[in-house]
Protein backbone atom coordinates (compact mmCIF):
# COMPACT_ATOMS: atom_id res chain seq x y z
CA UNK A 1 0.00 0.00 0.00
CA UNK A 2 1.67 3.29 -1.05
CA UNK A 3 -0.38 5.35 1.36
CA UNK A 4 -1.86 5.12 4.83
CA UNK A 5 -4.75 7.18 6.06
CA UNK A 6 -5.74 7.62 9.69
CA UNK A 7 -8.20 10.02 11.34
CA UNK A 8 -5.70 12.82 11.50
CA UNK A 9 -3.13 12.26 8.77
CA UNK A 10 -2.17 10.79 5.42
CA UNK A 11 1.23 9.20 4.85
CA UNK A 12 2.44 8.68 1.29
CA UNK A 13 5.23 6.19 0.64
CA UNK A 14 7.31 5.79 -2.47
CA UNK A 15 8.64 2.31 -3.29
CA UNK A 16 12.23 3.69 -3.32
CA UNK A 17 11.91 4.90 0.27
CA UNK A 18 10.73 8.52 0.14
CA UNK A 19 7.78 9.45 2.35
CA UNK A 20 5.62 12.42 3.27
CA UNK A 21 3.35 12.94 6.26
CA UNK A 22 0.40 15.32 5.85
CA UNK A 23 -1.78 16.31 8.80
CA UNK A 24 -5.43 16.94 7.93
CA UNK A 25 -5.09 19.86 10.37
CA UNK A 26 -4.10 22.68 8.04
CA UNK A 27 -3.14 20.17 5.32
CA UNK A 28 0.25 20.72 6.93
CA UNK A 29 3.08 18.60 5.60
CA UNK A 30 5.13 17.84 8.72
CA UNK A 31 7.74 15.49 7.26
CA UNK A 32 9.29 14.81 3.88
CA UNK A 33 12.03 12.22 3.68
CA UNK A 34 13.98 11.59 0.50
CA UNK A 35 17.41 10.24 -0.34
CA UNK A 36 20.09 12.07 -2.29
CA UNK A 37 20.28 11.28 -5.99
CA UNK A 38 22.61 8.48 -6.94
CA UNK A 39 23.41 7.61 -3.35
CA UNK A 40 22.52 4.58 -1.34
CA UNK A 41 21.42 5.10 2.20
CA UNK A 42 18.25 5.81 4.03
CA UNK A 43 16.07 8.78 3.14
CA UNK A 44 16.69 11.86 5.26
CA UNK A 45 14.34 14.51 6.58
CA UNK A 46 14.22 17.60 4.36
CA UNK A 47 11.87 19.82 6.37
CA UNK A 48 12.28 21.49 9.75
CA UNK A 49 9.66 20.82 12.42
CA UNK A 50 10.12 22.46 15.81
CA UNK A 51 10.18 19.93 18.63
CA UNK A 52 7.87 22.37 20.43
CA UNK A 53 5.33 22.48 17.58
CA UNK A 54 1.77 21.65 18.62
CA UNK A 55 0.57 18.74 16.50
CA UNK A 56 -2.80 18.33 18.21
CA UNK A 57 -4.72 20.99 16.28
CA UNK A 58 -4.50 23.56 19.06
CA UNK A 59 -2.47 25.99 16.93
CA UNK A 60 -0.77 26.28 13.56
CA UNK A 61 2.22 23.97 13.19
CA UNK A 62 5.69 25.54 13.67
CA UNK A 63 7.45 23.90 10.78
CA UNK A 64 6.85 21.67 7.78
CA UNK A 65 4.76 23.39 5.10
CA UNK A 66 1.82 25.34 6.53
CA UNK A 67 -0.69 26.57 3.92
CA UNK A 68 -1.46 30.30 4.12
CA UNK A 69 -4.87 31.51 2.81
CA UNK A 70 -6.67 33.94 2.33
CA UNK A 71 -4.32 36.53 3.88
CA UNK A 72 -0.60 36.68 4.59
CA UNK A 73 0.53 38.43 7.75
CA UNK A 74 -1.98 40.54 9.66
CA UNK A 75 -5.24 40.97 7.73
CA UNK A 76 -5.44 44.11 5.58
CA UNK A 77 -8.43 43.45 3.31
CA UNK A 78 -11.97 44.22 4.62
CA UNK A 79 -13.07 40.63 3.77
CA UNK A 80 -10.35 39.34 6.16
CA UNK A 81 -10.90 41.65 9.13
CA UNK A 82 -11.83 38.86 11.58
CA UNK A 83 -9.04 36.51 10.54
CA UNK A 84 -5.83 35.75 12.43
CA UNK A 85 -2.34 36.29 10.99
CA UNK A 86 -1.88 34.14 7.84
CA UNK A 87 -5.63 33.37 7.60
CA UNK A 88 -7.45 30.18 8.49
CA UNK A 89 -6.29 27.46 6.09
CA UNK A 90 -3.39 26.38 8.35
CA UNK A 91 -5.75 26.09 11.34
CA UNK A 92 -8.67 24.13 9.92
CA UNK A 93 -9.25 20.46 9.32
CA UNK A 94 -9.09 19.63 5.65
CA UNK A 95 -10.92 16.66 4.11
CA UNK A 96 -9.22 13.74 2.40
CA UNK A 97 -10.73 13.63 -1.09
CA UNK A 98 -8.90 10.96 -3.08
CA UNK A 99 -5.68 9.36 -4.20
CA UNK A 100 -5.25 10.82 -7.67
CA UNK A 101 -2.12 9.04 -8.85
CA UNK A 102 -0.48 5.84 -7.76
CA UNK A 103 2.17 4.41 -10.04
CA UNK A 104 5.93 3.96 -10.22
CA UNK A 105 6.45 7.66 -10.89
CA UNK A 106 4.73 8.73 -7.72
CA UNK A 107 1.78 8.77 -5.40
CA UNK A 108 -0.51 11.72 -5.07
CA UNK A 109 -3.26 12.75 -2.67
CA UNK A 110 -5.96 15.41 -2.97
CA UNK A 111 -7.23 17.28 0.09
CA UNK A 112 -9.98 19.88 0.11
CA UNK A 113 -11.22 22.75 2.27
CA UNK A 114 -14.58 24.45 1.83
CA UNK A 115 -16.64 26.82 3.99
CA UNK A 116 -17.94 25.28 7.22
CA UNK A 117 -19.46 26.88 10.32
CA UNK A 118 -16.10 27.35 12.05
CA UNK A 119 -14.91 29.32 9.01
CA UNK A 120 -18.06 31.26 8.06
CA UNK A 121 -18.24 32.93 11.46
CA UNK A 122 -14.89 34.55 10.60
CA UNK A 123 -15.04 34.69 6.83
CA UNK A 124 -18.18 34.86 4.71
CA UNK A 125 -16.80 34.53 1.18
CA UNK A 126 -17.38 31.34 -0.77
CA UNK A 127 -14.23 29.44 -1.81
CA UNK A 128 -13.05 25.96 -2.67
CA UNK A 129 -9.45 24.97 -1.93
CA UNK A 130 -7.80 21.88 -3.34
CA UNK A 131 -4.31 20.79 -2.29
CA UNK A 132 -2.59 18.10 -4.32
CA UNK A 133 0.56 16.60 -2.80
CA UNK A 134 2.62 14.32 -5.02
CA UNK A 135 5.59 12.30 -3.82
CA UNK A 136 8.23 11.01 -6.24
CA UNK A 137 11.58 9.43 -5.47
CA UNK A 138 13.46 12.73 -5.12
CA UNK A 139 10.68 15.29 -5.45
CA UNK A 140 7.72 16.62 -3.54
CA UNK A 141 5.12 18.57 -5.45
CA UNK A 142 2.57 20.72 -3.61
CA UNK A 143 -0.14 22.34 -5.73
CA UNK A 144 -2.68 24.70 -4.23
CA UNK A 145 -5.82 25.37 -6.28
CA UNK A 146 -8.16 28.20 -5.33
CA UNK A 147 -11.59 28.14 -7.00
CA UNK A 148 -14.18 30.88 -6.71
CA UNK A 149 -17.53 29.07 -6.77
CA UNK A 150 -19.56 32.30 -6.43
CA UNK A 151 -21.89 33.24 -9.29
CA UNK A 152 -21.25 36.97 -9.25
CA UNK A 153 -18.73 38.02 -6.55
CA UNK A 154 -14.98 38.29 -6.99
CA UNK A 155 -12.75 36.42 -4.52
CA UNK A 156 -9.81 38.54 -3.32
CA UNK A 157 -7.11 36.51 -1.61
CA UNK A 158 -3.47 35.94 -0.88
CA UNK A 159 -1.97 32.46 -0.73
CA UNK A 160 1.45 31.10 0.22
CA UNK A 161 3.26 27.88 1.05
CA UNK A 162 5.31 28.49 4.20
CA UNK A 163 8.06 25.97 3.45
CA UNK A 164 10.51 25.38 6.33
CA UNK A 165 13.60 23.90 4.66
CA UNK A 166 15.85 21.98 7.05
CA UNK A 167 19.30 23.51 6.57
CA UNK A 168 22.09 25.16 8.57
CA UNK A 169 20.67 28.68 8.47
CA UNK A 170 23.99 30.48 8.76
CA UNK A 171 25.40 28.65 5.74
CA UNK A 172 22.59 28.80 3.18
CA UNK A 173 22.77 30.66 -0.12
CA UNK A 174 19.57 31.41 -2.00
CA UNK A 175 19.73 32.22 -5.72
CA UNK A 176 18.94 33.83 -8.16
CA UNK A 177 17.49 36.96 -6.59
CA UNK A 178 20.06 39.54 -7.73
CA UNK A 179 18.29 42.67 -9.00
CA UNK A 180 14.86 41.59 -7.70
CA UNK A 181 12.78 44.16 -5.85
CA UNK A 182 11.67 43.35 -2.34
CA UNK A 183 10.15 44.78 0.80
CA UNK A 184 12.03 44.31 4.05
CA UNK A 185 9.63 43.54 6.90
CA UNK A 186 12.41 43.79 9.50
CA UNK A 187 12.49 47.58 9.03
CA UNK A 188 11.21 49.60 11.97
CA UNK A 189 8.76 52.06 10.46
CA UNK A 190 5.68 51.27 8.34
CA UNK A 191 7.09 53.57 5.61
CA UNK A 192 10.42 51.70 5.52
CA UNK A 193 8.62 48.35 5.58
CA UNK A 194 6.65 49.26 2.47
CA UNK A 195 9.55 50.82 0.53
CA UNK A 196 10.89 48.63 -2.24
CA UNK A 197 14.60 47.81 -2.16
CA UNK A 198 16.67 46.17 -4.89
CA UNK A 199 18.57 42.99 -4.05
CA UNK A 200 22.29 43.58 -4.56
CA UNK A 201 23.54 40.15 -3.50
CA UNK A 202 24.14 37.41 -6.04
CA UNK A 203 23.44 34.89 -3.24
CA UNK A 204 21.04 35.81 -0.46
CA UNK A 205 21.83 34.63 3.07
CA UNK A 206 19.90 34.70 6.35
CA UNK A 207 22.75 35.26 8.78
CA UNK A 208 20.83 38.18 10.26
CA UNK A 209 17.10 38.41 11.03
CA UNK A 210 15.50 38.24 7.58
CA UNK A 211 11.89 38.79 6.52
CA UNK A 212 11.91 39.83 2.85
CA UNK A 213 9.14 39.61 0.28
CA UNK A 214 10.55 39.52 -3.26
CA UNK A 215 8.47 40.43 -6.28
CA UNK A 216 8.52 38.67 -9.62
CA UNK A 217 9.79 35.36 -8.28
CA UNK A 218 11.98 33.36 -10.67
CA UNK A 219 10.56 30.00 -11.78
CA UNK A 220 13.42 28.14 -10.11
CA UNK A 221 15.08 28.92 -6.79
CA UNK A 222 18.12 27.15 -5.42
CA UNK A 223 18.85 26.81 -1.74
CA UNK A 224 22.32 25.44 -1.15
CA UNK A 225 24.70 24.93 1.75
CA UNK A 226 27.88 22.89 2.23
CA UNK A 227 26.76 19.32 1.64
CA UNK A 228 23.19 20.11 0.62
CA UNK A 229 21.09 21.54 -2.15
CA UNK A 230 17.38 21.85 -2.75
CA UNK A 231 15.64 23.43 -5.73
CA UNK A 232 12.15 24.90 -5.77
CA UNK A 233 10.40 24.88 -9.15
CA UNK A 234 7.53 27.31 -9.07
CA UNK A 235 4.57 28.30 -11.18
CA UNK A 236 1.60 30.57 -10.57
CA UNK A 237 3.25 32.33 -7.64
CA UNK A 238 4.34 35.96 -7.94
CA UNK A 239 6.27 36.52 -4.71
CA UNK A 240 8.95 34.76 -2.72
CA UNK A 241 9.28 35.42 1.00
CA UNK A 242 12.54 34.54 2.73
CA UNK A 243 12.27 34.34 6.52
CA UNK A 244 14.60 33.45 9.32
CA UNK A 245 14.02 35.10 12.70
CA UNK A 246 17.53 34.44 14.09
CA UNK A 247 17.76 34.85 17.87
CA UNK A 248 16.52 38.44 17.69
CA UNK A 249 12.95 37.41 16.80
CA UNK A 250 13.15 33.62 17.18
CA UNK A 251 13.69 33.72 20.94
CA UNK A 252 10.26 35.39 21.24
CA UNK A 253 8.41 32.59 19.43
CA UNK A 254 6.84 30.31 22.05
CA UNK A 255 6.75 27.13 19.97
CA UNK A 256 10.25 27.51 18.52
CA UNK A 257 12.63 24.87 19.83
CA UNK A 258 15.88 25.94 21.50
CA UNK A 259 17.99 27.68 18.80
CA UNK A 260 15.58 26.33 16.18
CA UNK A 261 16.36 29.31 13.92
CA UNK A 262 19.80 27.80 13.34
CA UNK A 263 18.24 24.78 11.63
CA UNK A 264 15.96 26.13 8.89
CA UNK A 265 15.30 28.74 6.30
CA UNK A 266 11.76 29.50 5.23
CA UNK A 267 11.45 29.94 1.48
CA UNK A 268 7.84 30.78 0.79
CA UNK A 269 6.38 31.04 -2.71
CA UNK A 270 3.17 33.02 -2.66
CA UNK A 271 0.84 35.58 -4.09
CA UNK A 272 1.13 38.11 -1.30
CA UNK A 273 1.76 41.56 -2.82
CA UNK A 274 -1.73 42.90 -3.34
CA UNK A 275 -4.57 40.44 -3.76
CA UNK A 276 -5.33 37.93 -6.45
CA UNK A 277 -8.77 38.82 -7.76
CA UNK A 278 -10.54 35.72 -8.94
CA UNK A 279 -13.69 36.13 -10.98
CA UNK A 280 -16.75 33.88 -10.51
CA UNK A 281 -16.02 30.33 -11.60
CA UNK A 282 -12.28 30.98 -12.03
CA UNK A 283 -9.43 28.93 -10.58
CA UNK A 284 -5.89 30.00 -9.64
CA UNK A 285 -3.15 27.40 -9.19
CA UNK A 286 0.17 27.81 -7.41
CA UNK A 287 2.65 24.95 -7.75
CA UNK A 288 5.83 24.29 -5.77
CA UNK A 289 8.04 21.33 -6.63
CA UNK A 290 10.85 20.66 -4.14
CA UNK A 291 13.66 18.82 -5.84
CA UNK A 292 16.60 17.12 -4.15
CA UNK A 293 19.81 17.88 -6.01
O1 LIG B 1 4.59 33.05 13.51
P1 LIG B 1 3.86 32.86 12.21
O2 LIG B 1 2.45 33.45 12.24
O3 LIG B 1 3.84 31.43 11.76
O4 LIG B 1 4.64 33.69 11.12
C1 LIG B 1 5.99 33.44 10.87
C2 LIG B 1 6.50 34.34 9.77
O5 LIG B 1 5.81 34.06 8.59
C3 LIG B 1 6.29 34.75 7.42
O6 LIG B 1 7.55 34.32 7.07
C4 LIG B 1 6.26 36.24 7.60
O7 LIG B 1 6.90 36.90 6.53
C5 LIG B 1 6.89 36.63 8.92
O8 LIG B 1 6.66 38.01 9.12
C6 LIG B 1 6.32 35.82 10.06
O9 LIG B 1 6.96 36.18 11.26
TrEMBL record:
Keyword terms, alphabetized: Isomerase
Binding site for substrate: 62, 85, 90
GO cellular component: cytoplasm
Active site: 162, 268
Listed InterPro entries: Aldose_1/G6P_1-epimerase, G6P_1-epimerase, Gal_mutarotase_sf_dom, GH-type_carb-bd
EC number, UniProt record: 5.1.3.15
Reaction equations catalysed: alpha-D-glucose 6-phosphate = beta-D-glucose 6-phosphate
GO biological process: carbohydrate metabolic process
Domain of life of the native organism: Eukaryota
One Pfam family linked to the record: Aldose_epim
A GO molecular-function descriptor: glucose-6-phosphate 1-epimerase activity
Function: Catalyzes the interconversion between the alpha and beta anomers from at least three hexose 6-phosphate sugars (Glc6P, Gal6P, and Man6P).
Family indicated by similarity: Belongs to the glucose-6-phosphate 1-epimerase family.
Record-given protein name: Glucose-6-phosphate 1-epimerase
Amino acid sequence: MPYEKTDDKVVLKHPKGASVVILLFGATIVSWKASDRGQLGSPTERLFLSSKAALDGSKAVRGGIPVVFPCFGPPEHPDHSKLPQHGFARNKIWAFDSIVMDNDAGVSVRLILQPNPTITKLYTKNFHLVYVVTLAEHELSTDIHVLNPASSETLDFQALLHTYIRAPANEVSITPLLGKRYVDKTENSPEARSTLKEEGRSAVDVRTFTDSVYEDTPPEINVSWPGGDLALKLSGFTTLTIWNPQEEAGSKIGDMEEKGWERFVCVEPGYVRGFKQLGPGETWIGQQVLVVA
